[in-house]
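Hi R.,

Here's the chain you asked about this morning:
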Amino acid sequence: MLVNPTRSPLLVGLLILGAALPALADDFRDLQLWAPAEVSPYGRGPQPGEGFFFVFDQLYWRIQRPSTQPIGQPGESREVWFGPDIDPGNAFTLTNTHDTSLLRSTPLSGSQRFDVGRVIGRWGWFLSTYNLRPQHQELFMSDVHVVFEDPEYGPIGRRFLQGRFLIEGDPDADPPIPDMETALLDLPVIFDEMRVVNRVEHWSVELNMLHRTRQLHHGGFLEFFGGARYLEFNDRFTATTFPPPDVPVPDPDPDPDNDNDNDNGNGNGNPTGVLDHSFWDTRAENNVIGPQIGMRWFRQHGRLRVSAEGRFLAGLNHQNVTQSGILGSELNPTTVTFGQPFAVDSQGFRHREHSVIFSPAVEVRANAHFQFTRAVSFKAGWTGFWVDSIARGSAVTRYRVNDLEGAAMGIDMGRNRQHAFAHGLNIGVEVNR
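And here is the predicted structure, written out as tokens:
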């Protein structure tokens, strides 16, 4: 994040207002806030105000949820075992069973937008800024099958998600059959419970020069403007897994003195959670800055005025993606546990990636205004904002198990070009606009 998202728009506005105070003082002396509205249709009809103007909007927006992403490595599957390989029924194909489609956009309230500027004659400037309250989405999922990349390592091609099972012998046979361990088998990753959280923050500030045309043939006006805009769109994706509850189960051959008699508590060798007690947190910060052009049309009839405006931003997006967490915090390779990874310790990780890409954005506003006095109007309308090539946490998360050089999990910057759409209603008041 380049700058503080809550203070920067206010700071920029205060600096501009401070530089413009001498002119604003003259405008305020001439501004008649409570004078009767000029709504006569004769002559050229009502004319737009000149001098200082101010607009306040209360926003009720939604931010589009992230595009659907699997909880696990996309398009991957693994042949795994949940018991000894002497029984073919213990093998199955593991696929990702859950995704982010259950995340839903939620309405935002308590967010504000401010426009402030000054027009003299047909030329002027304005500053516009808004800061949306964070949007928080949360899911609780059960029986989550997750496919991780599991690369080979070592001279004999071992994998990290491999373990052994115990084949019980028969001491009463003649001759007695001893217990045996299986070869290393690929193990499934199944989380009994998982909590997924997605959090989005977005704010924007822009400064533009403005040119207002003469009155059009049908009575309306056009304003063309151009300047610079900076916005942030920050997305955070967090997953936390919980171990299953401890449920007593019968053990066919309990032996408290035998450390190898540990089958993870289910009595039959089936793993209840290969990577339980795991956590990953991926934060994607999108800092978009660039030139902007736009146009506003408005027309008044009596006390009613309608307006429509659009903006296009040719933004350069400085993406900063960070990831941290731990996989299998309870794993201990010094203790033999059947049905668990054989030689993998708990894997803490921390990753960081940076990219600069082109990120265009479009904003559209449409409003209806009611002129209350000469300078004061009430307004209501709709705003839509779309931005492309945005990194979102759930999309760039890479699912990988690797105990070498802290390479567990990871960031896939090949999936950093999502789009985002925010829209909703706005209700506000404007002075001399």
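One quick note: Residues 245-271 have pLDDT under 50 and may be disordered.

Cheers,
M.
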